[in-house]
Write a structure and sequence with these properties.
This protein has one helix at about 75-80, and strands at about 15-20, 30-35, 40, 45-50, 55-65, 65-70, 85-90, 90-100, 100-105. The protein has about 110 residues and is mainly β. Strands 3-2-1-6-5-4 form a six-stranded mixed β-sheet. Strands 7-8-9 form a three-stranded antiparallel β-sheet, with no helix packed on it. The N and C termini lie far apart (about 60 Å).
């Protein structure tokens, strides 16, 4: 049996769509991946942001085990529309709620 090492550019999955139920702290965000997995964002399946080499956001979602999905740009824009402010450790952040958990997406920037 041969063993191959697979190198993934960013994440093995791509979250291609999102469904939203409810609002605020009662909101539930469900993501569908390019292979048909349905993942509900919660404490066990968090959403977080990394940055690419240019400083642009790379939104991710934990699918299972240590496998994550990159959230597609159009889905990220939908997610950004749902963002709400929240104080975390004395800093005002923006993020989204899902299943009673708050997931920060960045710092609140006011014009």
């Amino acid at each position: 049996m041969e063993k191959l090492k697979i190198i993934v550019d960013d994440a093995p999955f791509l979250a291609t769509s999102m469904e939203v139920e409810g609002k605020g702290e009662d909101q539930v965000l469900s993501f569908k991946t390019h292979v048909g997995d349905l993942v509900v964002a919660d404490e066990d399946h968090p959403i977080w942001l990394d940055q690419d080499k240019h400083g642009d956001p790379l939104p991710h979602l934990l699918v299972r085990d240590r496998l994550e999905a990159l959230i597609a740009r159009p889905v990220y824009y939908e997610l950004a529309e749902l963002a709400q402010p929240m104080m975390i450790d004395g800093a005002e952040k923006v993020g989204v709620w899902s299943c009673g958990a708050f997931f920060p997406l960045g710092d609140l920037v006011e014009d």
